Automatic annotation (TrEMBL):
This is Cell differentiation protein rcd1. The keyword Iron-sulfur does not apply. Residues 1-25 form the signal peptide. InterPro entries: ARM-like, ARM-type_fold, CNOT9.
Length: 293
């Protein structure tokens, strides 16, 4: 409706500062979790404006270079299941979803230097159906980029961190929705583009994806069926490189759940709220941008 809203907001004096002030004002309500519905709705309105900045080609890169997304990670790093927190997490995921939707390598490289992947993995493991779907979409779009795939497959910890969460979602009861399952299959399919990941998945792909368990769920979705068949075809091709060694539980937990790694300046992220490990079982404070190794 207002195609120039994003650049107008960015260029208008004090607007971004006010939006950040609104975000910062809810930090005290994150831990302990005391966020009310009215405060959550107000924050979601601010996040909707930030999403417009993330969607617009003129302001997307500016948003990242100004490190505005750094202020949003504490909003994802919450564990309360109340509606006020779920709406907050979902709207925050929408900002990152808008960023990755552009298929911009510069955006992906910026996010690889952050906590978005471990935070998304935690939400994929413990969130609601809708938040899982958006978080899985974000991870899918990141690894669709060549730099994103190389980053994930660079170490066994990163690969198995994602593969283990995908397997958990496949095995869940009730089963995932058709839309979520399609994103899960596309993540697996993209991972097979790396030879070592493909070799590992030949023995680690959930049996439910091989034995027709989801045939009825996929129904008439020809695209999803094609993705699944292509995945199985890719895994049927012998790989010539040895798979990476499987990491221990602690290594997988480190990738799946963000910790309190230091920032470039050596100080921990001030974001509030604990991270309760799903498969890892640990807890930690909201981490800073996780730098690429």
């Amino acid at each position: 409706m207002f195609p120039d809203l994003a650049p107008l907001m960015w260029c208008s004096f004090g607007t971004i500062a006010v939006l950040l002030q609104e975000i910062l004002s809810i930090y005290p309500a994150l831990s302990p979790p005391t966020l009310s519905a009215s405060v959550s709705n107000r924050a979601c309105s601010v996040l909707a404006l930030l999403q417009s900045l993330a969607s617009h080609p003129e302001t997307r890169t500016l948003l990242l270079k100004a490190a505005i997304t750094e202020y949003l990670y504490p909003l994802l790093n919450t564990t309360s299941n109340t509606k006020s927190f779920e709406y907050l997490r979902l709207t925050t995921l929408g900002v990152f979803g808008a960023l990755v939707k552009a298929d911009d390598t510069e955006v992906v490289n910026s996010l690889l230097n952050s906590d978005i992947i471990p935070l998304c993995l935690r939400i994929m493991e413990t969130g609601t159906e809708l938040s899982k779907t958006v978080a899985t979409f974000i991870v899918q779009k990141i690894i669709t980029d060549e730099d994103g795939l190389q980053y994930i497959c660079a170490t066994p910890e990163r690969f198995f961190g994602i593969a283990s969460v995908l397997a958990i979602m496949v095995a869940e009861q009730p089963p995932p929705s058709t839309r979520l399952l399609k994103h899960i299959v596309r993540c697996y399919l993209r991972l097979t583009d790396d030879s070592r990941a493909r070799t590992a998945l030949q023995t680690n792909l959930p049996e439910a994806l091989r034995d027709g368990t989801f045939n009825n769920l996929l129904g008439d979705d020809a695209v999803a069926k094609r993705y699944l068949q292509q995945l199985l075809d890719n895994l049927a091709v012998p790989a010539h490189r040895a798979p990476p060694p499987s990491p221990g539980p602690a290594a997988v937990a480190e990738v799946t759940h963000p910790g309190s790694a230091p920032t470039a300046a050596g100080t921990p992220h001030p974001g509030p709220g604990p991270v309760t490990g799903g498969s890892g079982g640990g807890s930690s404070q909201a981490g800073p941008s996780r730098r690429r190794r």
